Amino acid sequence: MDTVLSFIDSQQGRYLTELNELLAIPSVSSQESHKPDMARAAQWLSEHMTRIGMEHVAIMETGGHPLIYGDWLHAPGKPTVLVYGHYDVQPEEPVELWHSPPFTGTVRDGRLYARGTADDKGQVFIHLKAIEALLRQKSALPINVKMIVEGEEEVGSDHLGAFVEDHKDLLKADLVVISDSGMFEKGVPSLTYGLRGLTYMEVELTGPNSDLHSGSYGGSLHNPIQALTEMIASLHDRNGKVTVKGFYDDVQALTAVERKSFAKLPWSDRAYAKRLGLKTLYGEKGFTTLERLWARPTLECNGIWGGYTGQGAKTVLPAKAFAKISMRLVPHQSSKKIAKLFAHHLKRIAPKTVTVEVRELHGGEPAITPIDSAGVKAAIAALEKGFGKKPLYQREGGSIPIVVDFKKRLGLDTVLLGFGLPDENAHAPDEFIDLENFYGGIRTVVHFMNELPGYWPSSRKR
Ligand code: BES
Ligand code: MN
Ligand code: MN
């Protein structure tokens, strides 16, 4: 192992140069204009995977943005890990708030800044470099590895479920490993065992059949913006609870054991509020902040628009008003069911003065992964070796919808091995990956591959 680890230490400069090539490709999956960049990023990854010694590397069509597959399968009798990640990124806007160009990897204060550093190109690259280090120094991996890197995670992984279903043999494995989440805080390696689900809705309210002069017509009708904000304001009660009828029906209650384990984590509401520039926090009464973030469902307005928002004043009553509203879900809520409840609720509370249309944009199911599996045990051991500290167990508030598909379609549990940080600015200006986490991540993945056979039932000596 030592030769592999010292090789990793000696390659830090090269790692950054290489990763910067991938970061320079603006693979924004949501914007049509970046379609050629999606192809370029896929090409870059496939060439890189081949160069480090992976086999059967292929750019595969999904019906949407392509996906890259590669494997290394020369460890007979040893477990097979399916590594999943994504090369698509969120838009860089608002670009003026970045302190260095979003698609130029830039090191400042021990961090590498650029869109996709943490979410998720940097974390995909961690796996590639771990594989490369082992193949260069040992000419073999201790386990079998299959890897898929998709290009549609940030837009809901619309085609991936069907792809997995159609490629069950190709993707046959013993467990899934995903590095697309974070650690509890810097210096605290963490094993994530829960993700929230998501239901994303768009609401369109229509009042009069055209925009109207607000002097000639104001006072005679219900402004759709007013109606919409009244409706949105009613979606939470005084206790911060969501009022959508039936919203909490399927929510799995927190157990006393889990509440206790959350409460033991090194957390300060004050420090958290301070980091966010807030005087005080807000949320559902009766739950701690970590409980609200990880184990309680939420409803959030992501955007709201209508009427005149250009320069200066325009006296107008808009014909329409819109909102984008998403809900984070927890076990055992169902994304489809919540979408229905939401649409029904909005129709029910809409005043007669307007008509309301509700559309579902995308969704994904919440996931809890078992923490007593061989994969998790190996991950815990690997994190401790990689970061020199015992990891803690945590859940996350974000969503990786494909985790549930891997379980349902391939029967596989997922190990979430995240190397991001809570303040990494994912989806925001100045996204970064902490370089200690980056190099620690490479070491951890090497240790993970090395540890796994020892924990794996079928390959364990009796
Ligand atoms: N990497 C994130 C998911 C994530 C975020 C996991 C924070 C753990 C902590 C992923 O790329 C993401 O952004 N997912 C989307 C969901 C998707 C359906 C658009 C999300 O959570 O909003
Ligand atoms: Mn991600
Ligand atoms: Mn993301």
Structural summary, described in words:
34% of the residues lie in helices and 21% in strands. The chain is of the alpha+beta class and 462 residues long. It has two domains: 2-195 and 366-455, Aminopeptidase; 197-251 and 297-364, Alpha-Beta Plaits. Strands 1-2-6-3-7-17 form a six-stranded mixed beta sheet, sandwiched between helices. Strands 11-13-9-14 form a four-stranded antiparallel beta sheet, with helices on one face. Strands 4-5-18 form a three-stranded antiparallel beta sheet. The longest helix is centred in the last third of the chain and has 21 residues, at 435-455. The radius of gyration is 24 Å and the shape is globular. It starts with a helix and ends in a 7-residue tail after the last helix. The model has no long low-confidence stretch (mean pLDDT 97). The structure holds ligand BES and manganese (II) ion (2 copies). One manganese (II) ion is lined by residues 86, 119-120, 153, 180.
